[in-house]
Amino acid sequence: MNTTFPYCHLVQLNSSGGFQLRAPRHLHNWFQQQCMDLLMNSSAADVSVQNRLLSLWRANGADSYLAQLSLRCFVSHQILRVCTQLANQFGDFYSFTRDDLLPLVLDDTGETNHTYQPFTLEILNSYDGAKARLSTWAAQLTRHHDELNRYLLGKGLYRASDWAILNDTTPEQLRRVLASYHGWGEAEIAAAQNLLAQYHQVYRQARLNQRLQGQRLGRCQPPTPQQLRQILPQLQPAESLARLKGLAAQLRQYRIHVRGGHPMTFLAADLGQDFSLENLPDPEHVNRVEGDDDQVEFL
Fold this sequence. Notes:
Layout (H helix, E strand, L loop, with lengths): L4 H4 L1 E4 L5 E4 L4 H15 L3 H14 L5 H31 L3 H8 L13 H7 L8 H10 L2 H9 L7 H6 L3 H11 L4 H27 L12 H7 L5 H22 L41
């Protein structure tokens, strides 16, 4: 794709709910005059272009509006990219398409309206170039857009990893969920609480130690085989992993319910039996934009 393309074409909704590309008047010629030298000569062209556009916009000079509009064009492409990724990753399983998501986040008409701030401009106004790439920031804010997440919850999709869910659940919270929502008996609840406590002692404590040592944590990854052996020494790591994922699935189902979504029927009530979770798309696994991993701690 022409490197000028995302800076000179705004992604907009069309009348059928899909998207169309519009080239704002005069923007392409202006952009070539202002930024083509950076695109031709810089090894980090996008960063250089965006820094120049941000400077021109924030200077409030004669070029301010066109600089802002060019940035809004770029951000609109990142919004489209995230919606496409979500639909490709989860759409078939949870019954939605990219065109179902776009109207929730794609609202920039390219006009200037002082009484309404489109989502693209909301992203730009909150952006700090010293802390993240613009593509990363736009993708993260799109993924965490309130209306988008309410829609996905309504489809039964709660996008937190199993390990993040287990990390921030207390044994008492687990008891309430399993007793009042799932109707478990005391013996099963006690076994689940013991499993969660062991997980916290091994996995969560390891993350806390890493943080105290000044290490960057990033997103929660699955427990290692060594950690799984520590959590449930009497079982093989694969079985321990299945039990943890089953417990997280119970909690995920409840969280979707209390947030107004429609949880899927849980696959198995007994944490002691084999689980078949392989066909579920991982809610935390979405194709990330470049640089995303480096910005997790900041975000």
